[in-house]
């Protein structure tokens, strides 16, 4: 076998050929794929970096898909809004058309004075007995009821009544400032005459100030003033010496000596405490019949009933004897000494052993000594009291062995009344009455003014004038009058005000009915012509205004139906129900048609909102669209209508209309306003969606460019050759200085705030 | 949450579309709101942006100050693609900048762009060294450098 022996050189060349073949294969491979790094073997790190770049690019492309879907949804919503806006605008033009349309239907009627018309089965309109006032107003008025009204009682005069007493004879009394000498006046009549003479009374009521009347049967003299009224005071009478006087007593109070009770005019009164307490207690116990007063310890009790007699006082402390109080040091020694001496009289104490024995012994000799003895309160002393009483009695001197005088007091006199004045009978003033002015008081309220009225007695005309003057002062337009005994308060004009009477005497004078309501004249027509009258009445009737317009069409009555509904008119030609015709006046058809159009457009609006969906999401229905901007989901945007409310006719405030709604121009104006608000809402919603759309579009563009970059980067990955890269960077730097990119960047910067730097 | 800005005397900063210059005293300001804020040291102008990475920084800065725009976006991506072609190893930095822009946090994007500038300086430093050192070669070659 021939071995193939290769020389070193050939082997070397073979090797290099193999290498070249390998290289070629690699290069062809690379050329075919266009990538520098084909598999992990070529360059592991680059390969895996490139792989991750590819993966990232894919994630971003799926993001891109959802973003473009979001854009489409927004565009669909935008289209829907545009269509809805156009619909609302045509609804507006429909309303404007209706507003401008005035093609109301009319009918003409022949009417005479006796004709009666009625509309829609309502009230009859009759102008036959139309004067100048259709319904006259009522002036509020209130009157008294029951018995004829005569006003309050007349004013009374003042008077004073004197009870006659024989004491008056010969005395001088003072009546109303004039002294009257009653000499020789023996009875009431005589006194009266004397007073009249003294006062210069002539019996003429015009000139006399008083009237004096004496009554012998009653024993009274009555002095009456001629003047009447509450301001007149009772005539002043001073009876002077003719008056009866009251009895009184005076005594000096001594708290030490007065006992437990006293007697005054048969009443037993208790005595206690100091002088002030005593006075108060005494007054309380004696009551109103007496007056108790004191000047220090001097007490005066006066009777309140003038008349003869005295006040009897009993129980005043009586006189007391002298008192001596002794005590004995040693009874036994005294008995032994037996030298007890009372006022010079010796007492024999033989056989006495105890204190009681000594007392008995003294008492046995009381006839001689004039003293009685008793054991003192403390039980060890002896009280000696003299039998004789009075201040003249001096206390005896008591001597004896071991006898000590503790106290020694002279006798005391009885307490007597300092004064005892007897009462005397006489005349007295039995009554004094002032004059009175009875009034009726009530308050009159009319409209918003009130007046307090006070009626005094008098004639009818006086009463009426007084009331009217008071009403005029208060500015109340009400007049009082009395007719046939009935007092009436009537408002001057027929107006819609309330007349009310209240106050203390309101019910007494006016009875239960104290409120009256006035009313205005309802309508007045000045027209003379029958047709004109009809026109006036119909146009002014409240219930028909706005629904019907009447006018005079060349002597005939033309009725115009101002609504979209039919109007039926019933004409009673002769006014008595014999010939009745009925006509129907059609409604405004143009407007009625526009109503239907409006409602149709409204339905379209709702349908448009429902149809604006893309990929299952309808932003106009209130759905939420969420777009994510990066793979981790941390950067998102939520797109939704305000409050998530759907955009439809109801939410825009547009309701469907009925034919009646187009009757009046004002209602149509109201709808126009609603539509305008709805349009504003739509526009603001559209602009909100528009701004969302621009955000999403920006994001989409950026993401697309980024994906491009990633792709480029993945493809052009080469091993980091720092030197090569550095050289490349330098070249790039140079190139960029000449490139248009730099120019545009610079121009952008110039527009910005950077030019300030 | 307010941003605290300490200004040295004479220092300037941009707030929204205004330039605010400090007087000759140290000042501390608290700024709230969403207007763009840039301190003087963070601002590049077309004159000072002379390298590719700096131009990228400028582009991001324009987007931050004036909002995203089609033009600005085009310029930005042109620059990005150029630098990626020249130096693919800058890719991680570019990726991070892109991410921040995508989520709308432009201030952080500026931070990443600054990191890119730093890296570029490193790269260029290699070039200054010249050919004195050994060049790192591709292993697939098998050939000596």
Structural class of chain A: alpha+beta
Shape of chain A: elongated
* Multimerization state: heterodimer
Biggest pleated-sheet summary of chain B? 3 strands, antiparallel
Structural class of chain B: alpha+beta
Which blocks of ≥5 consecutive residues of chain A have pLDDT under 50?
A: none
Q: For the report, how would you describe the main beta sheet of chain A?
A: 4 strands, antiparallel
Could you tell me the radius of gyration of chain A in angstroms?
Answer: 67 Å
**Range of strand content of chain A:** 15-25%
- The side-by-side strand order for the widest beta sheet of chain A comes to 3-2-34-35
Overall mean pLDDT of chain B: 83
Estimate the strand proportion of chain B: 5-15%
Distance between the termini of chain B: 58 Å
Q: Helical percent range of chain B?
A: 40-55%
The helix/strand series of chain B, from N terminus to C terminus, equals EEEEEHHHH
What characteristic shape of chain B results from the CA principal axes?
globular
In DSSP terms (H or I, runs of 4 or more residues), the helix count of chain A works out at 14
Can you tell me the residue ranges of chain B where pLDDT is under 50 for at least 5 consecutive residues? 131-135
As a whole number of angstroms, the C-alpha radius of gyration of chain B is 19 Å
The total strand number of chain A stands at: 37
Mean pLDDT of chain A: 81
